[in-house]
Structure formats: structure tokens, C-alpha cells
Amino acid sequence: MNDKQKILIVDDVSENIHFLMNILKDDYAIIAATNGEKALKLASTEPLPDLILLDIMMPDMDGYEVCTELKKNSTTAGIPVIFVTALSEVSDESKGLQLGAVDYLTKPVIPELVHARIHNQLELKMHRDHLQELVEQRTFQLKRSREATIEAMGIVAENRDPDTGDIFNGQKNMYVSWSKQWRKKKSTRMFYPSRKSNLSITQHRCMI
Q1: Predicted pLDDT of residue 176
Q2: Average pLDDT value for residue range 97-113
Q3: How far apart are the first and last CA of the chain?
Q4: Fewer CB near the last or first residue (10 Å), C or N of the chain?
């Protein structure tokens, strides 16, 4: 099983693709596209690339357009994009960053710099993905707790004596027993989404 992180290289010049492939092939799984249309298709195909190296100066659809389309698509919006280009003006770099790129490499690229920039962005992405999983997990827990509270309130309302407002004894015992079961729920274990290590995070359910 190939557990290498996946990088998509997009450049209309084959020699540039091969150059980057030779730099990265030992550490990453590489796929490539020579035009924007193919790049968008590969970027949205599972398993999604972990990062995209994107040339700017391409015919038909340039890198700016490709980046814009990637960020508009919810499936690909979270993939980090690093522009790799011969353009070196500050305005060119600023435009790319405004469109959602995370970094900028100027040709001819320096192998050590390519590795460092890619490593940093993949680390940042891993932490962002982890935080997103924490948010989703916590949201799910709060939803379940809210549903349980509503259900318990419904049971109480349905089984009150219309004259005294007291809960019928049999139903009251059932409600107390049901509530205790919820309080005894164990904490949920979550794992850090890294390929190399798992970080166990313990979060406690809300008490009702």
C-alpha cells in the first residue's frame, strides 16, 4: 500500500514536470497534468492530492484561472496550491495569493527550497484537517446531547399528573434510570489524522 502524500504537478512544459518529479519522487506520490482542464479533473478525483504545484503561464486556461476554479469547488477548495512560475513581479505574487494560493516559487526552482515549502504547507494542512475533525466531532456530540435533552423533556411533559404537575411514579423511575445511563457514557476517543502517528484526544460528553 502506497502511503506517500500525493502531489499534483501542473505545467504545460513536460521538461518542467519531469524536473519536479525527479526532485520529489522519492518522498511523494506524483501525478501530473499539462493543461488546466486535466488538472481540475485530477484534483477532484479520489484520493485527492494533498498539494498542487501550479504553473501560471499556460495556454487556454492559465494558473490563475485554475486556482480560481479549485477554490470555487468545495471538494478541492482545501487543497494547498503553490504557484511555480517564471513570473517574478510582486504584483504577480500578490495576485496568486489573493486567489487562494498558499505560497509562490520562482523558476528556476531550488530543490531544497521546493522540499522545504512543500513540507511546511503539508504540515499546516494536516493541522487544519485535524482541527476540522475536532469541530465536526464536537458538533456531533452537542447535537446528540441536545436531542437527548429534548427527548427527556418530552417524557417528563407527557407523564405529568394534569392536576398536581408531578411525574407519575413509574414514569419518574424510568426517567431517573434513563438519565443515569446518559451520565455514565464514556468519553469519546479521537485520533490525529496523521499518516505517521495517532494522537488520542479525549473529550467528555455534556451532562444532562
Answers
A1: 54
A2: 93
A3: 45
A4: N
